[in-house]
Write a structure and sequence with these properties.
Length: 340
Amino acid sequence: MNSLATSSTSPVILTGDRPTGPLHLGHFVGSLRNRVAYQSTYQQFIMLADAQALTDNMDDTGKVHRNVVEVALDYLAVGIDPLQSTIFIQSQIPELAELTFYYLNLVTVARLERNPTVKEEIRLRGFERDIPAGFLTYPASQAADITAFKAILVPVGEDQIPMIEQTNEIVRRFNRVAGREILIEAKALVPEIGRLPGIDGKAKMSKSLGNTINLGASADEIRAAVKKVYTDPLHLRIEDPGHLEGNVAFLYLDAFDPDQAGLATLKEHYVRGGLADSIVKVRLEACLQELLAPIRLRRQQLESDRGYILQLLKQGTEKARAVAAQTTAEVKSALGLNYF
Ligand code: TRP
C-alpha cells in the first residue's frame, strides 16, 4: 500500500496529534492544511500520539483508544492521502519509548518546567504541583518522535514551537555526546495564521474549552456555531463603526474566505459603519459550509469501513517502525549500548 509513497530519499516530515477527541478547525488551520500541501514533495509520517495522550488521560484510557480511529478518519477526510503519507500509532513503536529513556538524560527538570507549552498546559489542567512525571517529560518523548524519523520539518500549530526548540537542544546534546551528527535538527512549519481563536473569542480553539467547530460538524452544528461566534461587543447598532481586533467572525474569514479581495471591501464597510454582524455571519457560514461539506461526506464514506482504517494503520505502523528501529540502533551504538 505505502510502496507508492514518495520516494524514501525525499526529506522527511514527522508530525502528529494526541487522539483525545475529534479534530477541529484549529487543527485544520494550524497544521492539516500544511500536511496536505506538503505530502507530495516530502516523505510524511503522521503519528497518532496515543502514548503521549495518556500522559494526562490515565483516568480515561478508553477515550484515547476510541479516538485513534476517529482522528485517522479526520486525516483521510481532509485529504491526507495514504499513498503519499504514512499514518501510524505511537504506542506500537517501542523504539520511541526507548529513545525517550535516553533523551531524558539530556534534559533537566528545570528546562522541562520552563517549556512554555508544558507550562501553559499545566496551568490549563490545574495540575499545580501534582503533575504526572510523564506529562512533565513529554517533550523528551516528542523529541524521540521527531528524531526517530530524522525529520527536517514538523507541520504544527504555533503552540508547538517550543517543542521543536527543545527537540533541537536534545539533538545538539546528543550529537556532542556521540561525537558525530547522528540526529538531525528539525524546523517547525507554522502557517501565517498559526492559531485560530475559539468561537467564544478565547485565544485558542480547543476541545477542553468547548469552543470548537469540529471537522465532522453537521450543517446544523455549523449554523448554530456561527450564530454564537464572538464579534464586536461595541457594535450595538448597525450604523455604528465596527472593530476588527479580536473579532472572531473576521478572523475566521481571514482564515477561510477564498475571496480575500471581497473580504477587504467588507472589512472597510464594517469599520465605516452600516454593516450588520448578521451579514458578516451569512458570509462566514457560507464559507464554512462549503469547506466542511466535502470533508463530512468523505468521512461518512470511510466511517463504515473501520477494518480498512485499521489495516491502513497497521501497515503504516510497520513501515514507521522499521525507520525508528534503524535510528534507535544508531543511537544505542553511539552510546556504546551495543554488545553482541
Ligand atoms: N504534542 C502534539 C499535540 O499535542 C502531538 C505530538 C506528539 C507531535 N509528538 C509529536 C507533534 C511530534 C509533532 C511532532 O498535538
